[in-house]
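User: I'll paste a sequence; please echo it back and then give the predicted structure.

Assistant: Echoing your sequence first, then the prediction.
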Amino acid sequence: MFAADALGAAAGGGEPAGTLSAQSVVLLSLTRPESFQAGLRAPGVQAGALRLQFRALRDIDRAPEQPACMVGFVLPKRLCRAAVRRNLIRRVLRAVLREALRDPQSASVLRGRALIVRLTEKLPPQFVSAASPALRAHLRVSAQQLLQLLPRRG
């Protein structure tokens, strides 16, 4: 079975598991090393301390038959020491992606893509607490900027 997010069903519009409409796109995790290697060679966009690299899904990703967007994270300990903060980054970015998948226009851009989000520099030092509301808002804005920079399909 594929590693779907616990809240991945939310992208399906509240439908029971297994009854996906043709419109819904599920958010899955990239888990295979080959998927990460291919994704890290792909083009990307940068917003603040985050870089989003994207490519089309391939056989090596073992993507399901239903429309999917697969995401992986590269959050080095040398740039973000606290596990609480790394987990917060993952949670906020997944939430922003789920929101984007609910929008039909954004979902059409994300459908069939593998995304890798990389932390490329330390987060600003003004965020003292690992889970402060200000850090959450900063990450949300950065993630939304990344998705706006993602090229639209022709």
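Residues 1-22 have pLDDT under 50 and may be disordered. The chain has one domain: 8-12+20-149.
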